[in-house]
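Discussion board: Methods & Data

I've been asked by a reviewer to show the raw model output for two of the constructs in my manuscript, not just the figures. I'm not sure how much to include, so I'm pasting the format here to get opinions. Each protein appears as its amino acid sequence followed by a line of discrete structure tokens. Is this the kind of thing reviewers expect to see in a supplement, or should I convert it first? Here is construct A:
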Amino acid sequence: MLRASLLAAARSTRMRSLVEAVPVTRSVVERFVAGAATRDAVRVVRELTADGRRVTLDHLGEDTTDSTQAARTAEAYSALLGAMSGEGLAAGADVSVKLSAVGQFLPVDGEKIALENARKICVAAAEAGATVTLDMEDHTTTDSTLGILRELRVDFPWVGAVLQAYLARTEADCADLSGPGSRVRLCKGAYAEPASVAYQDKSEVDKSYVRCLGVLMRGKGYPMVATHDPRMIAIAEHLVVDTGRMADDHEFQMLYGIRPDEQRRIAADGAAMRVYVPYGDEWYGYFMRRLAERPANMAFFLRGLATKS
């Protein structure tokens, strides 16, 4: 019930105003968001890569219904990649792009505009020696996102996909995207979805995650294991051994600010560990989904409200 309420609040402009009005909110959000500006993102990248972790960066914003804003988001990614390249931080980095932020929902030619903007980001990434991963949003965008992915991979075969284990369709999508060179981030999912398309029980989501992970690990692509769940991490490590994978043909991913000690452990053990780093002013929806994902995140936020003025 709490999770559903938080996910509903993530799309509420009224709730956004209330949350942003609380003085302590910004200081608590800093745990999960690198900052508002490009320089903040670059600073965090420098800190994370210093101890062997990799990064993927998300310029926050989604559900854009203005073509000018969509173009500005693409320009923000290009500026970020340029700034990182200038400091020698871009090679091997990744950026995560929500297609709804670059025009997917525009009423006229939305998919075409999103493809064009995503292509511009891919060009900038290629010049910087980085990669791009298309974030997945709610289930209504899945087919559109995978269609744009196919278009981009014609010229940029390294563009990554994100699949969400709570959707019933995802095991089949994993099989379709498990071919040579295919980068696939597998996560559990963070949107409120109906029972007609998504598993509702946590145990069913976990079982689906394991099945999907098995498909990816046995495939010929590059699995990206996005989870903070110790059981899922242990299962993934077992599958790595069982399928004969090496350290350079898969990676683990976690969110900025969540389980940093475990991130460092995985990196220190020789596995690739990539941290998802969001930045920008449009932090509200992202922040609310993080609260919904784990009770511990909500407890952290409430402690902040209780102890800071």
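Construct B, same format:
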Amino acid sequence: MSRHVAIVTDSTAYLPPRAMERHGITAVPLTVVLGDQALEEGTEISTRSLAQALQKRRSVTTSRPSPQVFAETYRKVAESGVSGIVSLHLSAELSGTYDAAVLAAREAPVPVRVVDTGMVAMALGFCALTAAETAEAGGTMDEAVTAAEKRAADTSAVFYVDTLDYLRRGGRIGAAQKLLGSALAVKPLLQLGDGRIEPLEKVRTASKAIARLEELTAERAGNAEVDIAVHHLAAADRAAALADRLRARVPGLADLHVSEVGAVIGAHTGPGLLGAVVSPR
């Protein structure tokens, strides 16, 4: 870890623990509210528990970290001796996390640059890794921010959900709202665009939707050197099979991460989610 610039992100980056430890990245947890219990993502609620709760149609909501939680995080990170912090977060269109970080940054003991990446999941995680690598190489805060913003601009995310119902219930459906009328007849492919969830294509069956997801991911990767992340919720076999096919199809593949999303994203997508992030280096 660079001793002059530290990287902070949030729990929706879904970075592998080893990568976070190796680069000294700190993740601030979002909260999942299950019934009357407020539980921190990553430590107090498992994705299995979440999936079971959703399948039983229990009340599940999510909330941002408070500015006080961010303030305490910045204080602890500053005590390690760094001279500045770059704080990278999921899209402000999807969560108030960015706003909470901005409020806390004003009172931090060292300068903090807060960035709305417009991303989520490993689309955010790849930005945090790039910022950390830039800082480790001696880059300034501005250089780390610029590197992260460029990575975000080049990164794309496509995902499939079994139903739009969870996105509708959570108020995160955005422009995909127009698909609701035909939701029973189609299996939607969605994407991140301008920080929002947008409809991409309508496909008639789950198998065809997943095949199209694979095709789009390979097309977006092209022949460039890319990192890919395959995410899922309660669909491990689907994710593993997709990852295997992408390894064979993407000639410039550098790293491929396969992981189950955490409870915050899972609460809004529901079981059966399958997604792919393509991030050129």
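Answer (T.O., handling editor elsewhere):
This is acceptable in a supplement if you add a one-line summary per construct. For B, something like: DSSP finds ten helices and 13 strands in the chain.
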